Amino acid sequence: MSSVHVHYLNHASLLVEVGGVRMLFDPWLEGTAFSGGWGLRYDNPEAVRLGATATHLWISHWHSDHLHAPTLSKIAQLNPDMVVLANVSANFSMVDRMESFGFRDVRPIGERQSIELNGQTTCCRYPTAGIDNMLHIASGSWSILNYNDCNLPAKAIQSLRKHMGPIDLLFTNYNHAGKLFDVVDDETRKEQLSEVLELTADALEATRVVPFASNHYYRAQVSADQNASMLDFDDLENLARSDERYIVLRIGDQATFDTPTSVRVSAREPALVPQRLEVHDYGPAVPWYELLEEVSVRSKALRGQFLHMGKLAVPDLVVRVSDHGRNLRLSIGQDAREADAGDSAHIEAHSQAMRVWLARRFGDDTFIAGAHFRLLDPDTSVIERWALVTLLEASHLDPQSCLHYLGARDGRRFLWNRREEILATLLGRRVKAGRVRI
């Protein structure tokens, strides 16, 4: 059995060498993500150079902490000929985007499509309902799964595992990654995160687990309090003392797996120290009537995509626009307008954050994952419904799009490829935005 070498570059980025392939995953290696909402806790000065030594590159999904344009542009300059596996689905394609960075060998990889990387190593991509994906690598007797940010019910995970077989090495997320809607104390939150990590490892029955995502922090002042509830490396090492499955790598560390149960960890010397946490500056306000006009376009578009039923399921949302000191009322299918003086706001956000949310492509993920708003109402059901419908519409999973999928062969295959998740989600009623579903 040949060895597997893993180098932890930063955040959710690994460089994995197996069977003559050096696969680079999701390089966000410098700067910020989610329009300034996230920062890197550590600066790894060697990361870009090491990432550029890869033979292959795969980006799990569109989020800017995974598909990070500045990092990818630098890597393409250093190694434009690495093979890029670009996800293609019925609702999006990464091919043009990856080519725009300067990569010359961009190869589409479809859903559940097995790709031969060389004579001894193959990979297969498994999608989830939204934009997330996992990649299964088979090389010799090795079975490696990069689960990354996927968020699936346990029943769906167990069903998918039957297609993959036993998992030797599992790379998976372990931290919260977005606005938290439920209110618990920091220690309880950490216990919840630890439990989700354990349940994911159990569902996949992995021999070894490398928790590697995420090492970000929230830069928006309205969500900076969430930083204290994130798991850190010390927390992970405490978990590993009671569970030998976990292999904890800090940023810059390396691990060599001679067999699934035999591992050698090489710690970076000197160890990297955390960076100073910064606060995001949104800059000048968007003029009030310009903001109303821009968000109105999206509010009205949602009506058609939800077959004119959105108004029945989604109440009006009142937003305290902090830099204007005024309240904005959003209604599905109608123009945005200033709320009445006596209306209580559900959330608070800067006008630039509101523009990102409702007037930019994939702004929904940026606004919610980037945690660019403060909760004002203890009852979060209204903002959760708005988050859900805007995320579904942006990912082309709204009712109008789903009807289109049913009417086309590629669309039916798109839904069939998510059968385990769809069934487990509907039976378990786990459809809330921003919630862990395992």
Low-confidence stretches: none
> Strand content of the residues, in percent?
15-25%
CATH classification, class level of the largest domain:
Alpha Beta
**How would you sum up the major sheet?**
9 strands, mixed
Helix content: 25-40%
What is the average per-residue confidence, as pLDDT, rounded to a whole number? 93
Looking at CATH, the homologous superfamily of the largest domain is: Ribonuclease Z/Hydroxyacylglutathione hydrolase-like
Shape descriptor: globular
Instruction: Report the CATH architecture of the largest domain.
Output: 4-Layer Sandwich
Number of domains: 2
Q: Count of helices?
A: 14
How does the helix and strand content classify structurally? alpha+beta
For the record, give the distance between the C-alpha atoms at the N and C termini, rounded to a whole number.
33 Å
Radius of gyration over all CA atoms, rounded = 22 Å
What is the CATH topology classification name of the largest domain? Metallo-beta-lactamase, Chain A
* Number of DSSP-assigned strands: 23
